[in-house]
Amino acid sequence: xxxxxxxxxxxxxxxxxxxxxxxxxxxxxxxxxxxxxxxxxxxxxxxxxxxxxxxxxxxxxxxxxxxxxxxxxxxxxxxxxxxxxxxxxxxxxxxxxxxxxxxxxxxxxxxxxxxxxxxxxxxxxxxxxxxxxxxxxxxxxxxxxxxxxxxxxxxxxxxxxxx
Length: 163
Fold this sequence. Notes:
Blueprint: H1 5-12, E1 19-22, E2 37-40, H2 42-54, H3 62-73, H4 77-84, H5 97-100, H6 109-124, H7 131-149, H8 154-161
Parallel strand pairs: 1-2
Helix pairs in contact: 2-3
């Protein structure tokens, strides 16, 4: 599903202070999101490179082939230490941020797997009937999933809120 940068801001809020793991969608390159720390997904970049490589022949494949090999090598710990010393940056630092911050994953696979149940539920239920229902569902799903990931029991948290 494609979305505009305005929708990203609407979901995150204007004062988002966290770090986003993203695919390589163009909406994340909007100037309005330039202040947000991001890690671009290496798996998505490798897929894009493979798509371009499939359209090339002969020496024209050299660039994408070499770049794929280089990017796959980024996850190697020895290569990370070497690159740390030379300030290796791509995509405004959004491709190699995981090299500087080990808590950041180099792909957004975990996030995409986390979204999968909500997407399936939306499709099975034939979507929300209106914008308010869609917004309510997304807020609840996000809140309860975040609580579960932080090892807090969502039902206990909800009970505390209603007291």
